[in-house]
Amino acid sequence: PFRPFQQLMGVLPSNSKQLLPECYRWLFDAPASPILDFYPRKFQIDRDGVKVPWGGVTLIPFIETRRLLDAMARAESAGTVPDAGRARNSFGEARAFRYDPAVRLELVSPMPRRFQNLLACPVRDTVFRHPPLPAGLAHFPNDVPPGHDAKSSGFPTLHSHPLTAAFDSGARVFQNAARGKSLFLSLQLTAPAMPPEAEIRRVLEAPWLRVAYPCAHRGAVAAVHTAS
User: Fold this and answer.
1) pTM
2) Which of 46, 89, 176, 195 is deepest in the core (most CB within 10 A)?
3) Eight-state DSSP code of residue 155
4) Residue 131's pLDDT is what?
5) SS3 content of the chain, % helix, strand, coil (to 5)
6) Residues 6+ apart with CB under 8 A from 175
7) What count of other Cβ atoms lies within 10 Å of the Cβ of residue 27?
8) CA 128 – CA 142 distance, rounded (Å)
9) CA of 88: how far to CAs of 4, 17, 98, 214, in Å?
10) Is 38 helix (H, G, I), strand (E, B) or coil?
């Protein structure tokens, strides 16, 4: 994965270059920068569906990974990154923070002129490590668990209706044409999906059920409407 400074170089505009060590700042706006085209001073904003400029999508070039990394390596060789900056740019450990009334942790503010220290925080800070994989597995299993029913009615699934799939050109993302081919799914809706009668009865007899997927919450069935 990208290191923190590399991520920032990929998302920050030139007006925010002071957030990075000085050796990288010239890459944003200097005429000699090999990636100057990544940071245009003028660009269009796609305001389709929004009324304010900051709610639109900025139409700027995609960051080319290899060019970005090569330019940053060149900048590092010509300048220096302070020790504090190297610490910021390193991969750290995942941390777990849990409430613990027996702990009184003091957090020193990195910006004392703006924020005071936090005293007596009842939080325990520990290193988080993922539990080990089961014996015989080299990586996390990326498949459907045994016994899973993907065609369960009432749950969003592409198995509810027949469909065709094809790779084709012409897809648009944020009003820009996709560079390569995309996967197009075409649904052939023949009739509304009708769950089995036993499943309808189970839903009606349930004390509660989850509704309004994907922002699911509890609900109760008050009535059933059919086409007839």
Assistant:
1) 0.51
2) 89
3) S
4) 84
5) 25, 20, 55
6) 46, 48, 57, 59
7) 23
8) 22
9) 7, 16, 24, 37
10) helix
What is the token pair recorded at 67? 């060019």
CA-closest candidate to residue 85, choices 25, 16, 20, 12: 20
Average pLDDT of the chain, as a whole number: 84
Pairing relationship of beta strands 172-173 and 176-177 according to DSSP bridges: antiparallel
Q: Enter the tokens of residue 220.
A: 């109760």
Confidence class of residue 101 from pLDDT cuts 50, 70 and 90?
A: very high
Omega within 30 of 0 (cis) for the link into 21: no
How high is the pLDDT of residue 151? 59
Q: Report the candidate in 103, 119, 38 with the shortest Cα–Cα distance to residue 71.
A: 38
Residue 185 to residues 21, 155, 161, 188: CA-CA distances in angstroms?
46, 19, 12, 10
